[in-house]
Amino acid sequence: MLLxxxxxxxxxxxxxxxxxxxxxxxxxxxxxxxxxxFLAAGSADxxxxxxxxxxxxxxxxxxxxxxxxxxxxxxxVRALQxxxxxxxxxxxxxxxxxxxxLRPADWTVLSPYVYRDGDRLGHQDLGDGDAxxxxxxxxxxxHYLGRANWSEPYIxxxxxxxxxxxxPILIPTADGxxxxxxxxxxxxLGWLDSIMAELPLGEAxxxxxxxxxxxxxxxxxxxxxxxxxxxxxxxARNDAxxxxxxxxxxxxxPGLLSxxxxxxxxxxxxxxxxxxxxxxxxxxxxxxxxxxxxxxELTKVEAMTGLGGLLLLVISVWLVxxxxxxxxxxxxxxxxxxxxGNLDTALPTPQGDDEVAQLTxxxxxxxxxxxxxxxxxxxxxxxxxxxxxELRIAHDIQMxxxxxxxxxxxxxxxxxxxxxxxxAREVGGDFYDFFQLDADRLVLAIADVSGKGxxxxxxxxxxxxxxxxxxxxxxxxxxVLQRVNDELADGNDACMFATLxxxxxxxxxxxxxxxxxxxxxxxxxxxDGEIGWIDKPCGTALxxxxxxxxxxxxxILQPGExxxxxxxxxxxxxxxSGALYGxxxxxxxxxxxxxxxxxxxxxxxxxxxREHAADADQSDDITMVMFRRLASQS
Amino acid sequence: MLALGPLSAAQVQTExxxxxxxxxxxxxxxxxxxxxxxSQFAGIYMAQRKGLYADAGLRVELIHANAERSSLxxxxxxDADVATAFLADAIVAAAPPATSQAEAMDLVQxxxxxxxxxxxxxxxxxxxxxxxxxxxxxxxxxxQGAFSASFDVFFxxxxxxxxxxxxxxxxxLFLKRGVAACxxxxxxxxxxxxxxxxxxxxxxxxxxxxxxxxxPEDGLYTTSDWLDxxxxxxxxxxxxTLAGWEYARAHxxxxxxxxxxxxxxxxxxxxxxxxxxxxxxxxxxILGTGNAPEPPGALNxxxxxxxxxxxxxxxxxxxxxxxxxxxxxxxxxx
Lengths: 634, 334
What we know:
A: 5-stranded antiparallel β-sheet; 22 strands; B: D-Maltodextrin-Binding Protein, domain 2; 2 domains; 5-stranded mixed β-sheet; 15 helices; 10 strands
């Protein structure tokens, strides 16, 4: 996640830096062109602002002298010149030079010239008798051009740059204006270089000033000015392109182009602007390389800032991620231990109130609940184990209550007796019993107590005790049941009850007395295979109500005939679909095993019941007692 | 100071009346050059710098003339022993016309350096000047004095009558289109105009020698009196000067360095391409291209006669000295 965050942020950063680089480049390039153009025009204006007023003064003077037809005393002319110098500190000297033929008669000089000589003003006659100035540009150009003129700048042997402005003195005549001479002023140009040097053209940028002839008047390289022209440089470098640019620059029209400076070899923007006064041109160069350097610097700063930010972001994300993942990692490390059952595993301490802290708290609560639950479970299990143990003992005790030794009377060949009791739980509510009242009489009993489990078992034990004791009092089954019922009903608040069938068999003759307190009718299996149900007489179940009477029934059991006593756990055994085993299947099963001994017969019956029940849980106690009277050998 | 052209009045005074001239050792040979430092005098600078004059037993001091005082003025005023001058100017100075107030100078030639004319007229093509006949009625400027003779013959030959105004020290009037045409030296003004950004195709040029006109130009001159006293020095001067030009031809870049240094020392604006242009053309004029009529340094008698005839016809001279008087060194060697 950290890598992803850093990668995506890095990509975005790169895109922003690139976009900014190109955007900067475009904007700075446009700005540089504007700057070059603006500064060229601005410095041209600045120079014009200094030359323009002087131009006006000289032209005014020339106009005055012309209108006066030079009719002005020499002293007045000198006074005028001195006043001009005093009022205009930039003017070095001023001359009035006339054609010798038109020299006013009262003038002692041909060309009065006043100039600065330190703090005072000096005077000179430039003509000095021979009018040699007639061929000088400052005289000849206004003379033949008929208009005021700025000379090509020149450099004094003192190193001072000068330029001369001269305006023609034109005397109005009938034939038109007559050229009489010129008024001039010499202007020091020391300030030109500082104007050009102070232009804010950036690193490697510079300004130049060209005369009409393309001669450099100002150039950052001192050896260039006045020696070289843009065309001499072009010639020296055999650079036709530079010559073309020079021609455009001195054409009098402003311009701008992309150019490689010959002085610095830098790709640059070159702008130029002509002056309104002198026919010179200001050129300004802004270096593209310096510009690109500036852009690169900007971009570098931006990239470094961005990288710093990215680093901070990565650290922050790492810290935040760690604050999230550390508890989660600790949780995920603890979870397998917890799941393997080690509930004492330490969990991270939740910090703050975020989702991770809540999850950690929830994990802790779950662990604690688990621990508590397991502890409860252990207690419950221990209790159940104890109960189960007790139940097992109860089972053993219950099983001990019924006779389990078979054959019970091995010395009696006249009978075959077998019983099976399969409680549905550890202890059941069924019981069977048999015992000899004397050598001839055998009591058989089977009972089913209402309910199951321990209460039923206890009730069963009580019922059996009463039954056994009552048979000792009086062996009539009907009366026995009546008394047992009375005993059970006494204090039977739980309203428990039991069904019970008991019979007293006289082994000598097969006479059977029996009584039934609501129990399933026993089955009589005759020797010929006939099945009979001993369903009468039948009374109510024992326990709920006192003072009940039970009739005693009688029958003769022939040798070979058998009785099957059973509880409803047999006939009501259910298969998985809920179908009952039923009396029909019981009867036919019993018919099928008429020839078998009691033990084998009951096991066959039990097997058949189990087959019927299949996987279904045993829902009720299964208890069966089978007695067969055998023919006495004697 | 007020502008007086390439050299100021102050500079003139310094060179003319003070400095080296005032404290001249007696055995120094003072050589006056026509103008301020430029390649026109390159061979002389090299002869001086490379010790060719010294090897010839000469201690030469160079003096530059100017607009106020020409090299012949310096010679005439005994401020120079030898001077360079145009042939026509020298003849005019030696044989002024009878009508002139000027006194004839006692001039003799030591060597004829520039063998042919470099004089020309340059005209603005866009003012309608394609050929000589188009000059008729046009305002043009040219130098006065001996030069005007060549132009007068040229105008007469084509029967044109331009309005001529005197031309002085610059071609700015022409560049500002105050005149339709101006005089130019092929090795100098022609290239200066080109260096002012004017392309050749905008101009029509008339080189006088193409029309069979013009005169040989720079030569070395002295007075016959000086020559009589220092004949051997004059011969040595001629040989060493020509050797200087040979050296300049063999070492053009070194020569240009020297010329530019001379210009810088004199405070004269100069640039190398212009000085190279001038050097190449002047070298061709002095040492020839192999088909010059005379060996370097010698004046062809026929050319001399033609020049004299032209000057006489123009009324610029009276009776000119004969060839052998004018060129005694050549006459004596022949």
